[in-house]
Design a protein that fits this description.
This protein is of the alpha+beta class and 434 residues long. Helices cover 21% and strands 37% of the residues. It is built from nine helices and 24 strands. Its main location: cytoplasm.
Length: 434
């Protein structure tokens, strides 16, 4: 082989990057489907899979072995329930994909919210098994809540994998598949738009319609793309030319500095001086790694681990921006548009909840409430489920805030009270600290 041919062979064409979060009710098969994807993509070898199968059989959990690729801690493996936010990478022909596997149980919704804020698209896994779909989609199930949370995080696209089509209660029934589509599309189309919702039947356990459409014998009625084909068809606009804005999801202090996990939302992050909020502190980035490989820069849509010199404490939800960027403001007081989804009781002045904004989880209290009636803005005494209104919101300490911008996915948040998602909000105006 001549030198030119060898050089051409070694050229690495950078694939597009895509981050997706698997959401849905507990037991829908999210982790099993994720494990199957990693196996079909060559990220898990056959020997490792056989090891998982043997170990799961010893625990009388034989059907769970695929999920062990993402459910790595002993508690998750023993109970068959995802509790933490699982993460893995794989490649299709055209795309490098980050999987975020969200817990389905209502006790772990905060971990799901953390993941959905790092994703480009949501992948909703629904069980087609008789009664399981109904249990997840009816009031009290996590399917609806996860759908609302995905939309509230600013995601504009959702792929619905109708799983367990091979189950004996379904047997690849086109009628069952269409029933699930009919039951969910009104809500999904209202939130995401008809053109940004895609359905496909799969078997996560058997691997049907994951890498390729291999349904000709079991479901000849489905002629759409496989999941991998769908991934390669997605076009996610990137914003490399914008000023840098990156969100911090994790930070640890070690070896004379901080190691920080960041997702670059806009712009490009490199080894330069940047601002860290809160406080608009100027910091220098020492090193950058992606998937344990050192790199010179991180593009929009990518997640990386960076090292900086020691500074004041850093928390999840803190923000890194370009030096010239001026839209981020530290404050503990702002006006917000609220949509009340599920309030246990009336919401009045002084009501307290937990706000999830990006990776930040912080207690808040509600101030005055206002409603628009005709051309007038009137102060009201309370809000209830289904209401849309404007509210004052107070935080104990100043946090980095931006006014809502749909295209940038900034200024959006979720309010929760115990295990209940109370509502969603958009920052309308940042006020002076109180």
């Amino acid at each position: 082989m001549d030198g030119l041919t060898e050089s051409i062979k070694n050229i690495s064409i950078k694939k597009k990057q895509l981050s997706m979060i698997f959401i849905g009710h507990v037991d829908a098969g999210k982790s099993t489907t994720g494990g199957q994807i990693l196996y079909l993509a060559g990220k898990i070898d056959k020997r490792t899979l056989e090891k998982y199968e043997k170990e799961s059989k010893e625990k009388n959990r034989e059907s769970w072995y695929l999920s062990w690729a993402l459910d790595s801690n002993p508690e998750e493996r023993d109970k068959g329930k995802t509790t933490e936010l699982g993460q893995a990478y794989f490649d299709t022909d055209k795309t490098t994909v980050q999987i975020l596997d969200a817990p389905g149980h209502k006790m772990y919704v905060p971990n799901m919210i953390l993941g959905v804020n790092q994703a480009d698209i949501a992948v909703l896994v629904i069980s087609a098994r008789q009664n399981e779909f109904e249990a997840g989609f009816e009031k009290g199930g996590q399917t609806r809540e996860h759908i609302y949370l995905a939309k509230a995080s600013g995601l504009s696209r959702i792929c619905v994998l109708i799983n367990k089509m091979d189950d004996v209660t379904v047997n690849w029934s086109e009628d069952r598949y269409n029933h699930i589509i009919k039951s969910t599309k009104k809500l999904l189309h209202a939130l995401f738009g008809k053109n940004d919702v895609v359905y496909m039947p799969i078997s996560g356990f058997l691997g049907h319609n994951i890498k390729e459409n291999n349904l000709s014998e079991v479901a000849p009625w489905y002629t759409g793309p496989s999941f991998f084909e769908y991934i390669d068809s997605i076009d996610i606009p990137r914003r490399d030319s914008d000023p840098l804005y990156a969100s911090i999801s994790d930070a640890s202090k070690e070896m004379g500095g901080y190691f920080i996990t960041v997702r670059v939302e806009r712009g490009v992050l490199d080894k330069s001086q940047v601002k860290l909020y809160p406080g608009a502190r100027k910091i220098n980035i020492i090193s950058i790694t992606i998937d344990e490989e050192e790199v010179e820069r991180v593009h929009s849509g990518e997640t990386a681990r960076i090292k900086i010199k020691e500074t004041d404490e850093i928390f999840s939800g803190d923000v890194i921006t370009a030096l010239e960027y001026a839209e981020t403001v530290d404050s503990n007081y702002f006006m917000a548009a609220l949509s009340i989804l599920d309030a246990k009781s009336l919401i009045t002045k002084g009501y307290m909840a937990v706000m999830h904004m990006g990776a930040r989880e912080v207690p808040i209290s509600i101030g005055d409430l206002y409603k628009k009636e005709g051309d007038k803005i009137l102060k009201v005494k309370f809000a209830k489920t289904g209401d849309k209104l404007v509210a004052e919101i107070f935080v104990n300490t100043p946090i980095p805030l931006e006014v809502y911008n749909a295209s940038k996915r900034t200024g959006i948040f979720t309010l929760r009270d115990e295990t209940r998602t109370v509502g969603f909000g958009r920052v309308l105006k940042i006020k002076e600290r109180k």
